[in-house]
Amino acid sequence: MSDDSHWLSLTSTHCRSRAPRSRNFPFPSDISGTVGDPQLAIARTASFKMQKIIRRTALARNQAQRKAIRAAKAAEREEFKDALRQRFAFNRIELDNVRAERIRRREDWLRGPLAPKRDAGLDAKTFGSLSPQAMNPPTIPKHLRRKYINIAAGDRVCIMKGRDKGKIGEVIKVDPNNETVMVKDLNMVRFHGCIRSMSTY
User: Fold this and answer.
1) In angstroms, rounded to a whole number, what is the distance separating the alpha carbons of residues 39 and 160?
2) CATH of 130-201, one of 2.60.40, 2.30.30, 3.30.450, 2.115.10
3) What share of the chain is helix, strand, coil (3-state, %, to 5)?
4) Which run of H or E residues covers position 14?
5) How far apart are alpha carbons 92 and 97 in whole angstroms?
6) Where are the domains of the chain?
7) What 3-state class would DSSP assign to 125?
8) Phi-psi region at 154: left, alpha or beta (left = phi > 0; alpha = psi -120 to 50)
9) pLDDT tens column, 9-35
10) Residue 5, pLDDT above cutoff 60
11) pTM, entire model
């Protein structure tokens, strides 16, 4: 056996031990020759390199997909936390409005004719009205919204909770972004002589 044939046989044996045959990527069958054939050794080496490249590409693609999924979940969590903060702030504004109006009504009752005129001065333009933040509930994240809303404008609905429980009214407006409806002449609050719609259902 010559030195060249010995080197080729060792090379083919070494390649065969490091990377076994794969069913997905078989050796080319059109190359014929003996074990010490240089063409067969080159074809096997190229096949192993191609398998390694394909394996690394698949691993990189899977890793990128996992990173994208984790980033999407993190964005959904942040959006949900932001929606909760907006909801808490909206509820806080609503409670503050009710508490302030109770204090004003009690003060008017205690002072009688000496009560301050609240429809004059700096608060004359905003007296008896609600802020835009109090009239517009916060939006719900898209991944948490209902797929279908079975209520449309013009429907007659019955209130199931709250002060107006059991009352029936007509739906004026449906907002799918915050999943609320506005019912005619219901959920009204008297603000110092002026009747205003407090919020939507």
Assistant:
1) 83
2) 2.30.30
3) 50, 10, 35
4) helix 3-18
5) 9
6) 1-90, 130-201
7) coil
8) left
9) 444 444 444 444 544 444 444 444 445
10) no
11) 0.56
